[in-house]
## 1
Amino acid sequence: MIEALFLLVAGLLGGAVNSLAGGGSFIVFPALLFVGVPPVIANASNTYAALPGYASGAVGYWHAMAKYKDRLVLYGIMAAVFGYIGAELLLVVTDEQFSLVVPWLMLFAVLLFAFGNQISAFVAAKGGGSRGMKAAGSALLLAFLALVCIYGGFFNAGLGILLLAFLATTGMSDIHAMNGLKLYVSAIVALVAVARFALNGSIDWFHGSIALAGVVVGGYLAAKNAHLIPAKWIRLGVIVYGVFMTGYFFWGAYL
């Protein structure tokens, strides 16, 4: 009973954080580890728990991201293909290998998000030249999205931060529209990954389903009320929380 309540609360908090800025899996994933789920299965179960929250959060943000609907098909295809590749990669690593690589993936994600504006300015400057430069810039952005989706299929925690960094490089600045697209892409990555993990028997359905219930409610409520929170505070919160969790994973893996 205590374990169930603990996972439910973790799911509520994780779903809310996912909708507001990304990184909510860093609440749910450690909670699954705490109740005794092995690392690789905990990660797969965390992806399963996050999936409905991503979907319900995207619905809550629909009006904010509707003006970018021309991106949905391309982003959806990229998410499905490369999210599946990431899921395949997870299934070939051991728990020990997985635990050692997590902190480095986190550090990469936080740095990308923190310096997303500078990256965006650089891409915009390069894209303003010749047609060839614009084409090269577009190709690099798609390569960036492909890598992010592989990351998401492999390690769901931190996917939202990476997607926000990617969207910043495309020139977007509306945090609520960015959150909507982030959740849309995350939902597709998680869907194909969960399907692959399920076929492999790598999901703890009992513990994952308890966390899932909390994630759904927390994600939708936070998305519906996101306009009440200033965008600059959301961004600052992501950076501070990301730094803290990066340190936590380094401490757990190497100290």
Note: The two ends are 32 Å apart (CA to CA).
## 2
Amino acid sequence: MLTPFPLGRPARMAVLASGRGSNLEALLEAFPPGHPLGEVVLVLSDNPSAQALERARRRGVEALALPWRGRRAFEAEALAHLEARGVDLVLLAGFMRLLSPGFVEPWYGRLLNIHPSLLPAYPGLHVHRRVLEAGERETGSTVHFVDQGMDTGPILLQGRLPVLPGDTPETLERRVLFLEHRLYPRAVRLLLLGLAFPPSPALKPLLGEAFPLFQALPPREKPLYLRALALLRRWGQEALAPALFLGRAGEIGRAAFLAAHLLAEDHPALRQELKELPLEVRAPAEAELGRVESSP
């Protein structure tokens, strides 16, 4: 298995937050109690005064403050709460601590973070100021799998925005936050539906001669290929994986790549191209798009 999802039941999710919790609010809105894909059942914060805790409590979600007494103590408490509540997926939303390998490794593939830049560019803090100082004309946000580094894990989904003349760190932050409130729930939906996963050793035998091609892809391109691969698997066409990565999978491969693009961001030209494919390859792709786009 390349991914533990879908589970065949609603996922139980926990959110770790340190501050105001605006991304938490977006997740609570997107995954309310009774949602068929999953719901947020627990919010943990290292900051007892975090607004995120109040946001969760107002919605009836269990919210616990675990005052910071060092990383080892915090992680031990957090892991105990996650296990006790049968959590399947952990989402970091403005959580301002770096987790240890002992925490990250058991949760790899089930631990996400959102970062306000187009990773791998601008990891760490003070992102918007650094983007402006560098004269960038484009910025965005990245949902990524958490690994042992700081904002270094495999990318799941990205969204892009322009940097406008006269922008300040504050105007850029507001624009990126608006994007994030839509991007993070969409990324979680893709993961829970089994349409996103991090690279794993299982890819090597699956891709065969095409594996070096995948390894050579830039970090921002790999998620597209992985979504296309996930679609092939859902369509019972996993044997076409090497041909897909080599551009030899015919109309099925084209449908997979078009749908993989559209799962990240709608584009009229790509949607029209998908409509022009034969019904037998178009219909499964459109069904997958409908599942993601119609999800509450």
Note: The chain has a mean pLDDT of 96.
## 3
Amino acid sequence: MSDSSGTDEPYPYAAFFGVMGATSAIVFSCLGAAYGTAKSGTGIAAMSVMRPELIMKSIIPVVMAGIIAIYGLVVAVLVGNGVSKSADLDGLFKSFMQLGAGLSVGLSGLAAGFAIGIVGDAGVRGTAQQPRLFVGMILTLIFAEVLGLYGLIVALILSTKS
């Protein structure tokens, strides 16, 4: 079968979707991580004026935001290594699964990064005024982080299907 592009394969664009999956994984998860880091960082800077001894204790939201980017990196590498030139129906199916995997971890990482940033900003400012808020902030950050982990799990499942 030949189409207007002159190739004998019916789906010459199949690899594009796999590459877009890898791109989506790293771009969206890094956007979430960057937002979480920046938003938490402004809270740390504002808090450190009043209570400079709490700076190291307040770095936790920044570290948790950085982990979101690692989730995206892992999936981007897995998907990127799995992209093939196969332009048949199986190759198209595999590339759609890779796109789904990338979007899964990327968009859940974006949402998790937003949540970590907002909670981290308010949490470190609140902890400076009332130290008993620290445990509540950490628990809320864990629940925000696990949103990105859910996306990673789904992405790993999707990227292994073929």
Note: The chain is about 80% helix and 0% strand.
## 4
Amino acid sequence: MDWWLLVTAGVVGGILNSVAGGGSFITFPALMFVGVPPIGANATNTFAVSAGYVSGAYGFRRDIARQPQVVLPIVLLSLIGGALGAYLLINIPEQLFTQVIPWLLLFATVLFVAGERLSERLANLQGAQLLLALMLVLVCTYGGFFNAGLGIIVLSYLVVAKYTDINQMNGLKLLVSSCVSLSAIIIFIWQDAIAWLPGIAVLVGSVIGGYLAARVSRKVNPQYIRHFVTLSSVFMTVYFFIDAYHV
């Protein structure tokens, strides 16, 4: 039953990550549900959903290639940020991370719900390229530290950076997420932080979900996906607040 749960969570998570973001609201709790400790579950989740990011980015490869001059800087900054975030995660005490989880989920949930309005305001500011580069590194550091909500935050960043085509934005979001995850995974492997068998189960589902979503995302009503992600993220946030603080 655990394996079917993890594979199913991976499929759903892969679909959500490719279409709207927020797949880790499903996969991260699933890993903890089957007994993986919090920091290990976070590291394992990063490993597991990375395949969905990569397969999804491949599905959007033509959209990504429309601005080839931005690809290399985005890749380099994403790799740096992902490694920094993973290093921070490995060096935080388990108990402290357990207490931080609900706050990170709350931050990602609020950003998902109100992110478009926030992004519209930020997009009106005249930001220098250096500021945008710093913002991307900070976004990717968050992703290396805690993968849940990464896609949502990257999409918000892309709005600030004045991208408007949703398919290109989804492609770049998946490219950033792939690079963040891959650099973080190197740190996690070095520290032996990944639970491999549960991670592989989620990874298999994530590959299937990510690629399927990239193929059909243009036919899916985004509002349905947003509603599902919002409800699931609110539920998971409340659950982890109760679990961490016994309220």
Note: The chain has eleven helices and no strands.
